[in-house]
Predict the structure.
Amino acid sequence: MAGKRAFLATTSIEEFWDTSGTLLILGEWCRRYSRKDYLTSLDTIALDPPYADADVPGIFEYLDTVYEKALPLLSGKLNALHGVRHPERYWRTLVGTWLLHLIHALYDRYAHIAAALAVYPELTTLCLDEESFQTPGETIEFMELLKSDLYNLQMFSRLLERLKGPFPKRKVATSDYIQASVHKVMPNRAVSLTKRFLARTLSAPGGRSGKIFYHNAYFPRSTEAKLMMATGFAMARFYFPSIDFGGTARDEVSRAELSSVAFGANEFERLLFGFIGDAIPVVFLERYRETDAAVHDLYREKPVALMSATSWHYNDVFKIWAASQAEKGAMLVGLQHGGNYGIIRYFLQERQELSVVDRFYSWGWTRNSTGAEVKPMSSTKLLGRPKGGGRGKGRHILYDLAVWMRCLVQFPLTTEYWRCYFEDIGIFAGSLSGEVMSDLKLRPHREDMGWEVRERLRDIFPPSVPVETWDVPFEKSLGECRLFVCGHATYSTTFIEALHMNKPTILYYDPSFAANTLHPDAAGYFEDLRLAGILFESPVEAAKQVNGVHGHAVEWWNEGPRQRTVERFMDRFGRASENGMDEWARELKGILAAGRRRA
């Protein structure tokens, strides 16, 4: 059938399909689970993925080299456009996360379109009209848009136009996009007038200079207050103004300059700066000077250090101030915020953070060959939580479920990986005994991301199995269950929390996927979990273990060798010292003393 004219579906939005002939399904994201019966009635051909999972590690490393080559060019161009002379580290801190995700997402979309055109060069399709295109305001909005069908259709449409076009187009209302903003995703972004007044008042000369500023550090509120007192109130929360980037007119001249940057040795690379010009968030271009001036007007002091767990990725205003203060000698400090750090080999977020900050506090693991100093400390997320409080004999077996974007946003987390993840849920369920099934409780992620998870679960599990919402705090649900089960052991913070509570736990994952490749330093610890009967490499084996131990889970869990294995694992990947608050107080005092000596 090579060369046959057919219609390419690049989206699950059926208004952009032509079902009168053969419908080419570009990828799994084009198929809504709720429309599976309708799809079987059509003449469809599902196109093969353009890369095998065995290729994914090489793709990950290749895209890292593309990023490292593109970043200096983008940095120089942004300096020229804004009339500034910031070093590359400044722009790495500010635009790095966005640029990495753009490169990863674009490569995936490009590979799919190029492969489809190679097999069906005469295909036709329906693209999104440029008048319906959307420009992200900030990094967090870009990430939210990547979850949406329309923004991915926008990317596919642009690729098709540049690789083959023109194709027929259709307009949609911009309100049909998932309207993402930092105000919804990170509600503490907006500050009240009172807080803004206090921030400005305390920022007066002598008010907060020489201190550690922090944002989203994951310290519990009670610990946060104690650390403030322990450091003589030399810690200050970073509050910042709410900026609405919506409705900003695009600076097409500056965007054209970015798009015209000569780059690349192959077709994909030559496309990159065209997409940078299209998709760079408003905060980095049209509203950069305004935002930079606003944050520096509000914060006039000279901090010793700036510290965060998550803001190095998605908080552009924080990054603007942090990057500029780093030029003046302030220390940038990263804090681990998820259980997969130090565990998986191909992890974009970990690499980005370690390339930006001066010091990174892990939950127990170390690294020698990184840009940042990695220092093990007690997990800020686990500080203040009681250890070993999870041995109660509750009735339920809590099955924790994950979800991710349907369209790839970063390698190695491919759409195929997540398709198989949902298949494994069905295999696990089919291997459980009736007695276990009657005690099971499901806890899916609060976000669905178009996978229609609850509908899938209704088709897999009996209606008697309860499905918990995130209205129930995870710590409460975990404390009340008898046994905890997690099928995404390499992408989970929840199982670290379960082990911290010393809750009987059974884990499984598929080691054949590149996404689950363990870092060499972590492999031995996971092998110990496997030998202890905690970790399994298939849902069937995990279900057999659940069937076998659920009736005496506490007794099984408390066996000495198993407890020692868990303690060793947690000391490396979920450290939580009983003296954690005092250790953090000493550490922060050390940062302050060193910073004041430098000053």
